[in-house]
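Hello forum,

I keep getting stuck at the same step: I have a sequence, I want structure tokens, and every attempt I make locally crashes halfway through. Rather than fight my setup again tonight, could one of you with a working pipeline run this one for me? It's a single chain of 194 residues.
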Amino acid sequence: MKEKMEVYDTIRNEIISIQELQRNVWIYMYVLFCTLFILGLEWSNYLYLVSYVILIPFQCVINEYKWSISKMSTYIRIFFEENGELGWESLHVYPIYKEYYRNKSKSIRGIIRISGAVHLGFLSTFFYCWNILQKSYVNGSFNIGIIDLIWIVISIILFVVLIIINRDYYNNYDSELEDIFREYRDGREEKSKQ
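Reply #2:
Ran it on my machine without issues. Output:
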């Protein structure tokens, strides 16, 4: 039992460590984005688009951290908590807690957290397009060059890619992971009985 608790503590500590890493990645993403955004306001519209070089990879890293946390949490639920002794990770999938958390996520803080890098990407695309359109509006009509039009389309494509990547963050893999881990656990138990 002591060895089992040591494994449990190790996995819980790893989850806590990854959560801290995830928070740091969020902070770095915001700092770098704000730097590029402010420079874009001062120097060049293209820096708005360069921000996607920050947003897309950082959102992918954040997604990977969430996947790792989900995987470890599910492992704990299946291998340590199903017998009823422990229950911290099981709380997170308890229907009443999930409803509470869903309602809590409707605050401004929750909306920003849920949107991930999407709201930052929206700002980049909006300001880039706005500045290009503003500069190309001459004598009551738009005079947009083909290069600017191509960059506007690229900006919109990058924004859509960011939305798709962010949606992956909220895919619920828990039930799939639970099935995999239960099958794995049951297979190990069968082998040990032979």
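The chain has eight helices and two strands. If your local run keeps crashing, start a new thread with the error log.
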